[in-house]
UniProtKB/TrEMBL annotation, chain A:
PANTHER family registered for this protein in UniProt: PYRUVATE DEHYDROGENASE E1 COMPONENT BETA SUBUNIT, PYRUVATE DEHYDROGENASE E1 COMPONENT SUBUNIT BETA
Alphabetical keyword list: Oxidoreductase, Pyruvate, Thiamine pyrophosphate
UniProt-listed Pfam families: Transket_pyr (PF02779), Transketolase_C (PF02780)
Cofactor(s) the protein needs: thiamine diphosphate
One function term, GO molecular function aspect: oxidoreductase activity
Protein name: Alpha-ketoacid dehydrogenase subunit beta
Family annotation (SMART domains): Transket_pyr (SM00861)
Automatic annotation (TrEMBL), chain B:
Organism in which the protein naturally occurs: Maribacter polysiphoniae
Name of the protein in its database record: Pyruvate dehydrogenase E1 component alpha subunit
Ranges of residues in domain Dehydrogenase E1 component: 47-320
Swiss-Prot/TrEMBL keywords: Oxidoreductase, Pyruvate, Thiamine pyrophosphate
Pfam families: E1_dh
GO BP, one annotated term: pyruvate decarboxylation to acetyl-CoA
Lineage: Bacteria, Pseudomonadati, Bacteroidota, Flavobacteriia, Flavobacteriales
Taxonomic superkingdom: Bacteria
Molecular function in Gene Ontology: pyruvate dehydrogenase (acetyl-transferring) activity
PANTHER family, per database record: PYRUVATE DEHYDROGENASE E1 COMPONENT SUBUNIT ALPHA (PTHR11516:SF60), PYRUVATE DEHYDROGENASE E1 COMPONENT, ALPHA SUBUNIT BACTERIAL AND ORGANELLAR (PTHR11516)
Length: 344, 329
């Protein structure tokens, strides 16, 4: 259950990055065992603004800039967590995890299991995901499914500032390793596209939002559109235009990649009987495949038409604006898919 | 010094002897069900088995200086390191037999032993435990404790990225961290001279501005002295060290290794310099123990190890569906 207890008069509009900073700041005050480590998290405040101002407030002992030694500092976070600290570690871009995957999937994710539950690793791994701003193949991926595939870590990817704060606090308080993906375009940074959705109401007091629940962000009866982060935003834009044409779409923001909230997905499709899944990750073996498989095996009788999967068509993210726009699904792709599904 | 010396050297002897006898029994247990045709997945102890016979001084003579509050991260060849750190021998043996009573309830096996009560862990990925010890050292420093963290690796891991990244971090943050390199000359089949650009890894300490030591010819007494200096320095805020010890691998990389890559005379020569025998002779020669004391100590060791095997062999296997537990807490 969501536990937002803040009073209305203490709700302010914040960007995604400011919501992250507020969550971190409140938790750093609450628990002295929390440390923040990573590249440029100190004076710079995080390349995507997730630690702005924390260095000045908490100092270099708790907000630690690291060398470009991902195996070193993420491995150190594992050892520090086993020794009683609660490290929050940022690795700038999800694309950079190739150099440190051993520490993540062989150690961080498996030690609790291999120890028979005797070693707990309360680590939050923060990382920026997503494209849409011509940063090309090595700085634009989401890799949601790559992390969701591997057992032993929770993987979350919230969209709206309110969820970003509540889920980050929940992640910090969780005794399991949590990979917390923030979408660069949803951080509300002054040097990127300005999206209305990257600014939203955030309660001032600390609160938690569960790490295993999807959220219905628009109710409808004709079709269910499931998205994550920017694809949720595209789905909402599509739903607005579809409404003008008499199609009432329900939009679900997945929020949690692992574990996945089957219940909310099945309940929605039981009502709408149609499903479109939109993903800013690669098509094959990804979120669109996972959700389709859930529907095929547990919700098949609800479906009136074949499921539609929209995702990056198994190519690296290209640089040139026209090429990138072609491969990342958008509202128009969703509208086309839904209109093909439904004869109004 | 003399008295401490005596107790410590006896403790080192006890640890080495425990490890050796534990592994001699393991060698036999491992072969059960694997003869006449060797099948790695058969018998009461399936999977890979990396034994440390000959390498005991590296662990025993370092860890004698540590307490249960100090952290040790170990390798895929972890038995001597685990035994030296005081890991519960019954639970450790049960884990290797895949039993419910094991350290990891049968989910880890011989390369993945975790005993947080004595701050011991190991793992099957070469070099990966180094940054874990750096992190433990960081936590110790932040908590204001004088606890140290020691990572054990083989000489092959000294050529991994984790080695370089971890030493740079440990030195940069002046952490109470010690890296012990057990140079057994072989990275599976590749000789050290064919994998490593320097004759010994203590030289590499210079690259990080830290202290490096080389212990020659698997000498337990020298390892004991050098380790004391490194541990004292780390405890007193003096920062990290690398200790490389030239040690012996009496057996193959893993059990079943045909060892076609090494000269037939190598192992008999090494066995002729068995460090356990050398330490026993030292204890007797220096009048630190009588033959009767040594014999009593050894009998106790056999009893403790035999008890651990009894416990493991007679423990229950987990229920199959326990495989689904402990992914998350």
């Amino acid at each position: 259950m969501e536990t937002i207890k803040a009073k209305k008069d203490k709700i302010r509009k914040l960007t995604g990055s400011k919501a992250m900073v507020q969550a971190l700041e409140q938790e750093l005050v609450r628990d002295k065992n929390i440390i923040v480590m990573g590249e440029d998290v100190g004076k710079y405040g995080g390349i995507f603004g997730s630690t702005t101002g924390l260095y000045d407030k908490f100092g270099p002992e708790r907000i630690m800039d690291t060398p470009i030694s991902e195996t070193g500092f993420i491995g150190a976070a594992i050892g520090a967590a086993a020794a009683g600290l609660r490290p929050v570690v940022e690795l700038m871009f999800v694309d950079f995890h190739g150099v440190v995957m051993d520490q993540i999937y062989n150690h961080m994710a498996k030690i609790h299991y291999m120890s028979g539950g005797n070693v707990k690793l309360p680590i939050v791994l923060l990382t920026g995901v997503g494209g849409g701003y011509s940063d090309a193949a090595q700085h634009s991926q989401t890799l949601y499914a790559s992390f969701g595939h591997l057992p032993g870590m929770k993987v979350v990817a919230p969209t709206f500032p309110e969820d970003i704060k509540g889920m980050l606090i929940a992640a910090i308080r969780d005794d399991n390793p949590v990979v917390f993906m923030f979408h660069k375009t949803l951080q509300g940074l002054g040097w990127m596209d300005q999206l209305q959705a990257s600014l939203g109401p955030v309660p001032e007091d600390a609160y938690t939002i569960p790490l295993n629940k999807a959220k219905v962000v628009r109710e409808g009866k004709d079709v269910t559109i499931v998205g994550v982060q920017m694809m949720t935003i595209e789905a909402l834009n599509a739903a607005g235009k579809l409404a003008e044409r008499g199609i009432d779409a329900e939009v679900i923001d997945l929020r949690s990649i692992k574990p996945i909230d089957k219940e909310t997905l099945l309940k929605s499709v039981a009502k709408t009987n149609r499903l479109v899944v939109v993903d800013e990750d690669y098509l094959s073996y990804g979120i669109t495949a996972e959700i389709s498989a859930i529907m095929a095996s547990e919700g098949f009788h609800h479906l009136k038409s074949p499921i539609v999967r929209l995702a990056i068509p198994d190519v690296p993210i290209p640089y040139s604006r026209v090429l990138e726009k072609y491969v990342i699904p958008d509202a128009q792709d969703i509208i086309n898919a839904v209109e093909n599904m439904i004869t109004v | 010094m003399k008295n401490n010396n005596k107790n410590d050297l006896l403790q080192i002897y006890r640890t080495m002897k425990t490890s050796r006898y534990f592994e001699e029994r393991m060698e036999k247990a491992y072969l059960e069900g694997k003869q006449p045709i060797f099948n790695i997945g058969a018998g009461p102890v399936p999977g890979e088995m990396h034994l440390s016979n000959g390498q005991e001084p590296a662990a025993a003579a370092m860890i004698v200086h540590l307490t249960k509050d100090d952290t040790v991260t170990a390798t895929h060849r972890p038995h001597h390191q685990a035994i030296a750190k005081g890991v519960d021998l019954k639970k450790m043996t049960a884990e290797i037999f895949g039993k419910k009573t094991g350290l990891g309830k049968g989910k880890g096996g011989h390369m993945h032993l975790f005993d947080p009560t004595v701050k011991f862990s190991c793992g099957g990925i070469v070099g990966a435990g180094i940054p874990h010890a750096v992190g433990a050292a960081l936590a110790n420093k932040k908590k204001g404790e004088d606890w140290v963290a020691v990572a054990f690796i083989g000489e092959g891991a000294a050529n991994s990225g984790a080695f370089h990244e971890s030493l740079n971090l440990a030195a940069l943050w002046n952490l109470p961290f010690i890296l012990v390199v057990e140079d057994n000359s072989w990275g599976i089949s590749v000789a050290k001279k064919n994998s490593t650009s320097v004759p010994s890894n203590d030289i590499r300490a210079k690259a990080y501005g830290i202290k490096g030591y080389l212990v020659k010819d698997n000498d337990p007494v020298e390892m004991y002295k050098v380790s004391k200096e490194a541990v004292d320095r780390a405890r007193n805020g003096g920062g990290p060290s690398i200790i490389e010890i030239e040690t012996y691998r009496f057996l193959g990389h893993f059990q079943g290794d045909p060892e076609l890559y090494r000269n037939k005379e190598e192992v008999p020569t090494l066995r002729g310099k068995d460090p356990i025998e050398r330490l026993k002779n030292h204890l007797l020669k220096e009048n630190l123990a009588t033959p009767a004391e040594i014999s009593a100590l050894e009998n106790k060791v056999y009893e403790v190890v035999d008890d651990a095997y009894e416990f493991a062999i007679h423990s229950e296997y987990p229920e199959p569906n326990e495989a689904l537990e402990d992914v998350f807490c």
